[in-house]
Protein 1
Amino acid sequence: MAKKIPLYPRIELAKNTARDFIVKSGINTLPVDLFAICKKYGWTVKSVSEAEELTDEIDPFSLRFTPECDAKTYLTPKGKYFIVYRDEVVSKRRILWTIAHEIGHIVLKHLEDFEETEIHRGLTEEENEVLEKEADAFASEYLAPSDILLLCNCTTKNFIVKLCGLSNQAAENKEQALKHYKPDKNHEYLNKAIHKQFYNFIHNKEFYHSIYQSVCPCCKNYIFSNRESFCRLCGSGVSPSVLTEGIVYNDGPELNKSGRVLICPKCSNSTFREGDTLCSRCGFSLTNACTNSSAGCNIKLHGGSARYCYGCGSETIFFKTGLLSCWQRANQLISYREFTLRQLEDDSDTGCILKEWDYILNLIKEDSRFDVYSALKGSIAKLDYDTLFIYSESEEFLDLMSYSRFISYIIKLFRSRLKLPVMEVLTLPGDVMSLVAVTED
Ligand SMILES: [Zn+2]
Ligand SMILES: [Zn+2]
Ligand SMILES: [Zn+2]
Ligand SMILES: [Zn+2]
């Protein structure tokens, strides 16, 4: 049944609908691949040139000479959606926005709920404005989810442009909006679901690939800013930027905003007092400082995986004490893991790779089960109906997993927190990993 077009745009509803659609459409990286989404939902998307070729008519949807209109969406009598967009003299970013805006009209059910929208006849200017604003609010939140931007610490225009593919203007609007953004308490479940979906993207720093393009020629580690004179991973002097896809080294302990570890990497102690820099139980350094501070280097805060001080090139504490391996070893481990992952992905007899595994490991960490967490770190999991396969080559892992109470803890976690009916957990050594290690040595 046709409804009345609202007097004012329902901005919050549009944003929450976008968040809901982020979860439903299952996206887990940015920028969003809108063509893939349209394909998934069976919405046809054609550029004006493609439409011309298909229909053998010039400008069949009269878009070429209506410069104020970038796209149109049609709902066919059979209930199929059809989007056509202008592809001449418009940038890729503008096309992305336009299509997200049109998806907004579809997902907000503008064409189903309001009869007046039919081929844009019968809409007053005010009514049209209301629906346009709603579709824009949807596009902005779907392409650049506020919570993801905050968690990736990408809240400035330039980062938003790179990470989400927005235009400068749209990114600037987003930057302003983020300053006043507060998660909607009534829709907390949505933010949680989005966070879970984007867990790897955020916490395994996959987003570095979009926002940093300058990498170290030696180890391919991303260089964050021109303040860095030395590479944080291999310690070599940073030469002018090399534009290529880099490697994310993220093997160090996780740190909080003030640069302190969440758990002591040596003794797993996690109760620290305000301002503690050394573990009260074992005396290990809780921050990854430069070891050259006595000789005047004042850069105190380094990331958990940094081996060298980016300011003076000296070793960091975590590297000097042997907590972090040399970058070559880290690099090797990343290659082994990727190789194993590919092998396991190809082998469909033992189920599917569990993409949420790192997120689940985080739940274990939040449960303060640090023993289980550290034994499982770096492992790969597959799910085959009700059987969970865990692959790892760490000895700690094989030791711990032979105790049945750890297995029952994992089964319980899956059932209660993830609603997945896991019956059995099989732990397997990451054969492939060791195999490659042997042949390469
Ligand atoms: Zn529109
Ligand atoms: Zn390097
Ligand atoms: Zn300790
Ligand atoms: Zn230093």
Protein 2
Amino acid sequence: MNGKVNEIFQSIQGEGPWAGVRQVFVRLYDCNLDCVWCDTPKAKKTGGKHFTELTADDVYVQVMELWENCHTVSLTGGEPLKQVEFLRELLPRFRQANMPTYLDTNGVLYKELADVIKYLDFIAMDIKLPSSAQIPEHWQEHEEFLRTAATAGADKVFVKSVVSSKTTLADINQAAEIIARVNVDILLILQPNSQEKDKGVIVKCQEFQNHCLNLLSQVRVLPQWHKVMDIR
Ligand code: SF4
């Protein structure tokens, strides 16, 4: 089958505990959410038909051409799990070639995750806070997703949430409680919205960090480095 691929490129991971490593990014088209500050609008249907139809072999060949000195293949989007049937064909090729994989996901499509988790080495999962992303809540799906992701090992998954000037303590608390119910040692990263630095979001992140550390063992405040460095 063909996958709908928005772009394939090499760059530096900008988020989380693996920030700074070199990756080949495979950005898949389409998303199941509609966050107000989406930074990849071209990977969404509302942004137009920005994709090329490629087979798993086509994608594998293009990734291999960019692979030198890379740490992982990042499957990103959009929401990569929207094309889980394509991932089922693509991911085993990377596993066979000993190329570790890194899934960057909005953390909602838990049944699709269960389908491919055996091929994943790292899972970077968002918990979308309704007050930040301005979308309906997905708490139950996020919890199911995290439970599934944690079966890969608590050190293989981390959670990230963007904190904006609109983010509420109630939402952050809900996210921390979800993580605590699954495993208190899963890392939570609070990411201040880069467009609102002058609106007190960094201080807000520090206050939220203090609160979450009452529930979790690891909570960090980190920027989205790709936005600081202005790279893809
Ligand atoms: S989940 Fe990601 S790709 Fe989808 S709308 Fe939100 S920010 Fe955009």
